[in-house]
Design brief:
Layout lengths: L3 E6 L3 H13 L5 E7 L4 H5 L19 E5 L4 H13 L7 E2 L4 E2 L4 E2 L4 E2 L4 E2 L4 E2 L4 E2 L4 E2 L4 E2 L4 E2 L4 E2 L4 E2 L4 E2 L4 E2 L4 E2 L4 E2 L4 E2 L7 E4 L4 E4 L5
Length: 216
């Protein structure tokens, strides 16, 4: 395989982090950072990142050597952008930071971002376009649904499951074997001790869920 070009999708705060982690996770001998895809990269310039802006997902013309990394944390926004790119047959790759521990028996889908010091344990599964922030963990046999986000220090116990489009706040945790339904949000420092219906907001210890997201 020849040299591959990496494009970071997004140009905000999380994209800045992905940019730096990309330099750690991908060999400079096989990959080059081609640029960012976004409508605006003023924030990048303010922080001294001079990698070019190549346009946005609607007008960029994909080449055969292009591979895409997600630099968008917000679930709704990233999937709108990703869907536009997938329609153009974009090929997404996953980023696993070298300080993260991902057991060989774990399953990691395309477009996943696993940040520094995260843990993915035995027989755990992470579906496409999910993100694990630093020091988050996914214990044995646990499952992270597509597009879901684990904030820093968020934890899934053994056999726990979060379905698609779930957000776990900082230090949020899901007890072993519990299920959090699609489109739910678990607030920071909250603990899921029983199954949560789709479209819920979970707050507290033990967490109490409130059905407020009716479109999930």
């Amino acid at each position: 395989m020849g040299m591959q070009d990496l494009l970071i999708v997004g140009a905000g705060r999380f994209a800045r982090e992905v940019y730096h982690w990309t330099k750690d996770a991908f060999s400079a001998n096989a990959w080059s950072i081609k640029g960012f895809l976004s409508k605006d990269h003023s924030e990048l310039l303010a922080y001294g990142i001079d990698i070019p802006l190549l346009g946005d997902e609607e007008n960029y013309r994909i080449t055969s050597t292009d591979r895409f990394l997600l630099g968008i944390g917000e679930i709704d926004i990233k999937m709108r952008v990703v869907n536009n790119l997938l329609e153009k047959e974009a090929q997404f790759v996953s980023l696993i930071h070298p300080t993260a521990l991902v057991v060989d028996t774990a399953r990691v889908g395309r477009g996943v971002i696993i940040c520094p010091h995260a843990l993915v344990s035995d027989n755990a599964g992470i579906d496409e376009f999910a993100m694990m922030n630093f020091f988050s963990s996914c214990a044995h046999d646990a499952h992270i649904g597509a597009r879901s986000v684990l904030s820093p220090y968020a934890t899934l116990g053994g056999g726990a499951c979060i379905e698609e489009d779930v957000f776990l706040g900082t230090h949020a945790s899901v007890a072993p074997g519990r299920v959090v339904g699609r489109g739910s949000k678990v607030s920071a420092n909250s603990v899921v001790m029983r199954d949560v219906p789709p479209g819920s907001l979970v707050v507290g210890v033990p967490g109490k869920h409130h059905r407020i997201y009716f479109d999930a």
